Structures are given as C-alpha cells and as structure tokens.
Amino acid sequence: MNTTTKSLTHRIPARADLDRDQILGLQNELDALRREVIEQRGAQDARHIRLMVRNARNAAIGGRALLMFGWGPFSWIAGVMALALAKILENMEVGHNVMHGQYDWMNDPTLDSQTYDWDIVCAADHWRHSHNVEHHNYTNILGKDHDYGYGMLRLSEQQRWSPGALLQPFWYLLLAINFQWGVAVHDIKIGRFVKGRMPRAEFRERMQPFLRKASRQLFKDYVLFPALAFWQWPRVLLGNLVANLIRNLWTNAIIFCGHFTEHAHTYSRTETANETRGDWYLRQIQGSSNLEGGRWFHLLTGHLSHQIEHHLFPDLPAPRYAEIAPRVRAICQRYGIHYNSGGFWTQYIGVLRRILVHAWPTRPRRLIAASETG
Amino acid sequence: MPATVNSPVRSRRRWYQSSWLRPFNDRNALDELVQRLRPQAALSGVRARIEGIIEETADTRTYLLRANRHWRGHRAGQHVLVEVEVAGRRLQRCFSLSAAPGRRGRVQITVKRQPGQGVSAWMHERLGPGDTLGLGQALGSFGANLPDSGPLLLLSAGSGITPMIAHLQALVAAGTARDVVFVHSCRSRDQLILAEALNAAAAAATGIRVVLHYSAEQGRLDAGTLRQHVPDLASRYTLACGPRDFNAWVESLYGAEGALSRIEFERFAVPLAKPGAAATTQQTVTFKKAEHSFTAATGQSLLSAAEAAGLSPRHGCRIGICRSCQCRKLSGRSENLLTGEICDEPGQLIQLCISSARSPLLLDL
C-alpha cells in the first residue's frame, strides 16, 4: 500500500466555505425540496413499504422452511441466502426506515416508529435513542456522535491516539462479524460504566432491555427453530448462524460507508455550538457519503446508499431519496459543497484504509496548517 | 387496503403478540391470507363488506354493510368510527348508524359528500359493492336515557336525520304505540335522505307522526313553526341532532322552557379555530391519560408549553428529527411549525417539539 497519512489528508476536498446568506439559501432550498416530497407522498410509498414487509416475511418463511425441511447442501445454501436476505431487508429497508418515522404519516399501527421492533438483538428503544436522537442530531461531531468510531475505533486524526489503537484493524474485524451485538450494546454505554462514570443501578437498568431482546433472539434462532426441525436441528442452527453472519457483514460494510469514508468530515463541539438549520444541513451533507448502484443494491442497503439524502431528511420514505438525489447533488454543486459519492468498493476500501491509517498516531495536519497560515 | 381500526389508546402487547415470534404470530400476514378468500375476515378488529349502496340524494349515499364476527352490535342512536385509506394514509371518520339493530352484523351508514377531497369524497368516488371498510365498535349513548313510556319528540336537521331513523326503527321494532313526533328540517324535498326508511317506519306504527319542513320553501324552522307542529314540545322527552347552529338554537329554546333535563343532543362537529385566527391565541391542550390540561400559545411548540406547565413528556432532539416526543392527537387542529402544515385529522401522529395548537387539542398522553 502506497498510502501515507500525508497523501490521505491532502486528498480530502476541503469543507465548503459558505457565508451566512449562502447557508440560509441552502436551508431554504432544502426545506422547499422536503416540502415538495411531503406533498407527493402517498399511495406509492405505502405500496412500497408493504411490498418490502411482504418480501422480507416471505423470504424468512421460505428460508426457514428450506433449512428445516430441505436436504442436501444446495437447499441449505438457498435457505441461508433467503434468510439472510430476509434479515437484511427487514433490518435495513423496513426496520431502520420505519423506526425513523418514514411511514408514520400512514397511521398504520404496524408501521409506527415508536412501537416497531425488528429482527435483530438490538432493542428497538435503544436504537431509537442512540441512532435517532444522538447520531442523526450530532452527526460526526466528535465526542457527541457516539456512532463515530463506536467508541472503539480511531477514524480521524482529531481523535486521541493510544497504543490500543494499533489493534483496531483486529477489533474492526471482530465488530464486523458480530455487528448486531455491537449495535445492541451501543446505547448501554458500557465504557462509561467500566470507567466508573455510571452507577451500577443505572447500568443494570440500561442492560435490561438488551438482555430481554437478546435472549429472545437467541432463543428464536438457536433453540426454537432448530427444535422445530427435530433431527434436522444442526442444519437449522448452523444456517441461522450463517444467515446472521451474512447480515452482520453486509450491514456493517454499508453503515461504515455512510460516515467513515475518506472524504467524510468530522466536527468539533465548539464549532457546532450555535448551528442554524442551514449549518445542520451542511454538516449532514459533509459528514455523509453515498454509494452508487442499481435498484436492488439500494433496497438491500435500506437506501442508506443515499446516506446524504437520508441524513438531510431522515423521515422521508426511503425510495424518495433516489428520486431527489440528482437535485441534492445539483444544489451541492451550486454551493460548491463536495457531494461524496462513489461505488461500493471505492468507498469501502476508503473506510478500511482509514481504519488502518489511523491505527497509527496520525497528526491533525489540517489544523496545524490552518494555525500556521492564520 | 384499509385494515382494522386501531383503538386510539394503544394496548399493551402480550408476550405472544411480541414481534420476535414472527412469522408465527404475524396477524397481518394471516389476515392478508384469509382476506384473499373472504375480504371482510380478520383475526381481530371489525371489517365490513359493502353489500349495497343506496343513492339518497345527489350528494348523499347509504352504504349497507355486513360486518365480520368481531362486531359486537349496536343500539339505535350510536355512531361508528370508519377507517379508510386515502392515498396511503389511514383516516378515520365518525358516522351515525342510520338503521336500528337488525340481523346480526348488518349495519348501515349514510354519508354526505363534503366539499373538497376528503374522506367522504373518497368514499363516494372509490367505494363500490364488494369493497371492505375498517370499522370500530359502536360508540355513543345518544338516546340511551330514553324513557320507556311517555310522548317523544325527535328533532333533526340535515344529515342529523341519520340517528333519528335508527331510533324510529327501534321504536317500531319494540312495537310500542307511543306518541312520537318526528320533526325534520332540510333544504328541499330532493335533499331529504333516508326517505324510504322514514316512510316505512311511519307506516308501520300508528303513533308516529312525521313533520317535514323544507326551508327553501317555508323558510328557516323557527320556534313559532315548531310550536305549531308540536304545541307540547317541552313536555316531550326530546332527541335533537343537526348542524351546530341548529343544536344551539334548540338548546336555547329548551333552556327558555326550562326543559334541558328532558333533551339529549348528538353533536358531530368539533369546534375548531378559524383558519385565519389571530396569530397568538391561547389554546387549551389536554393530555388524556395524564388527565392534565395546560394552555399553549399558537406558534409555541407543545413540548415547551407542556414543560412550562410543569409536565415532562418524553422527548429527544427537540428539532423534529428523532420522533421521541411523537404522540397521537385525538382531536383538534395542530400546526407543524417546520412546514406550516395544518392538520385537522383526528387520530394522527404529531411531534410535540415542532407542533403547535391552533385549536383546543386532546392528546393521547
């Protein structure tokens, strides 16, 4: 690999330098775009989400049936793929998006953001807090967005380095394999408890939803369904394990491509203290990155491939992101904002490079340069 | 595809309804499957099939419905929440049941098409025989205190006739030879709805006298005309139903007679602030479950108003992103402070941090 920290920081397009009027203009244009989509929202979006719910459900039934009643390696592989597809669709296109409130306007109690629960060990209420409240609000603000590096990875030269970071490529591999568990314990904030900054009673209380949800998920995938298959139990158990693994690797890759690509910017608490809505929009654009692909690729990412549009408007029905993406891109171009978009492998290799590079004590070059010239 | 009406108050999920047991307990999936064979079938919740449609007037239709086995029946004078899905969005409206209880599961509602593209317009344009609707259970107690004997007066105007027909039919079915006067006011003869049912009821019982007042020809119904038709109105136990102005007029009339203890009203419309109401007015906001009311200024977020009143509703980002503060608005007009969107729909979800009251609000909190 010929990458050095120097070339990495040099290739990052600078943050857009907009004055207050431009920020306000950006805000008004994006607000107008949002209003336009809300006016168009209707039967088409309802059909889409119901179709996705059905697809996820049918894939789950098909996959589990193949694992339970099939024989031979081909039916096993087909079963695993179908179950992995079901979990990916349910977690990404249905669960994540429904819990954002993208379909609350439908007034359908089964698609209610505040009561929906998904097929993953992460308790829905934990997710609603760590993701919707913290991550989407404080996107890429170091110290406030706990999704930035998940408290275990150093992804920016502005994060403090410690010798432990040298092992982070290994930690990352572990996280990717067990991603649903990483997501599940994220909102418990175990680190705070370990450092003695959280009373034991609070810790126990925060653990409870996780333990309840995790035990149910484990029971379902590794006891109930294998038991229902009688002597076929090993293939069901193993199939469920592999399906969960595939889902973990896929969601991990997609989610890491959302904010940790090479061109995604980070922010400090002080510079975001007095943000307007326009500043907030700008940060969402510059802190996120898109992936390019076809319709099914977007569906399998839960439209997180349109991370920029999703972060601008987290509660618009996801398929609309693809529709408005060219217009968001045009707006960015007009304001001279870098629109971070690329193919999956380009972006993901960028993420992996970032994990490797910042395992070493990289220096905050840009800040030094700024203070020298200033 | 309107499914079953959800109760505005969310019930706690039992363990066997928990989502981790899907697909075994996926009611929606099972309902979808069953509904391919029988569209009105459902594991829980009332659905009804449209058996027939009667064109009452140019803008009013009666839907003859057959409800599934979850329908627990109704009494005359009750209404029902009807749920339809308009452009992907579930909307609920109340309609009086316009017939007395008959054969099991047979109910009917009479719907006047309101101007604009609302629920009634959608029903008139899109619903035909064979389609299904989501229903709630029968609600209301209009006429529940009707005495078993003594003379009665049924007084209605416009579409207020609907619960009256149910009451007349119930009286006929009970076989009483009571002295009943039914006074109904509408614009003209061709605006009279449920005429056939009315004629049938009047013909079936000797004690029923029907007075029809057509305001286009005879002018607005006033106290003098009413007394002419019913000289002893204050001594009759009375049921009244009509537009808001009509109800107010009847109420003042009975108030003057000192007979308010012998009259029951059925009111349809929830009073709303006028769209162009002054920018800063104080509105009363009620948290239903907490049984707490406070005032909120128009333009002020409900979250800050609630906190100013010492309440602490659940919330998160305070800027309309996370939806932690989302709750169901049971009635009233709210404004989305971000988009300026006005919402009059009952039973919709609103976010406290970016919503403001434009009328008294009732929230499911």
Note down, in words, how this protein is organized.
The complex is a heterodimer of chains A (374) and B (365). By secondary structure, chain A is an all-alpha fold. Chain A has one domain. Chain A has helices spanning 5-11, 20-40, 43-69, 72-99, 124-135, 168-177, 179-186, 190-194, 200-228, 233-259, 277-286, 295-300, 307-312, 319-335, 344-357, 365-373; strands at residues 290-292, 341-343. In chain A, helix 9 packs across helix 10. The longest helix of chain A is centred in the middle third of the chain and has 29 residues, at 200-228. Residues 1-10 and 367-374 of chain A have low confidence and may be disordered. Chain B is 21% helix and 30% strand. Chain B has helices spanning 27-37, 119-126, 161-174, 195-204, 215-218, 223-229, 244-257, 302-308; strands spanning 46-57, 60-67, 79-86, 89-96, 106-112, 132-135, 152-157, 180-186, 208-214, 237-241, 263-266, 282-287, 292-297, 326-331, 334-336, 342-343, 348-351, 355-357, 361-363. In chain B, the strands form four sheets. Chain B has a six-stranded antiparallel β-sheet, covered by helices on one side. In chain B, strands 9-8-7-10-11 form a five-stranded parallel β-sheet, with helices on both faces. The relative contact order of chain B is 0.10. In chain B, helix 3 runs parallel beside helix 4. Chain B has eight helices and 19 strands. By secondary structure, chain B is α/β, with parallel strands linked by helices. Chain B has three domains: 15-135, Translation factors (Elongation Factor Tu (Ef-tu), domain 3, Beta Barrel); 152-266, Rossmann fold, CATH 3.40.50; 282-363, Ubiquitin-like (UB roll). Chains A and B meet through helix 2, helix 3, helix 5 and helix 9 of A and helix 1 and strand 4 of B.
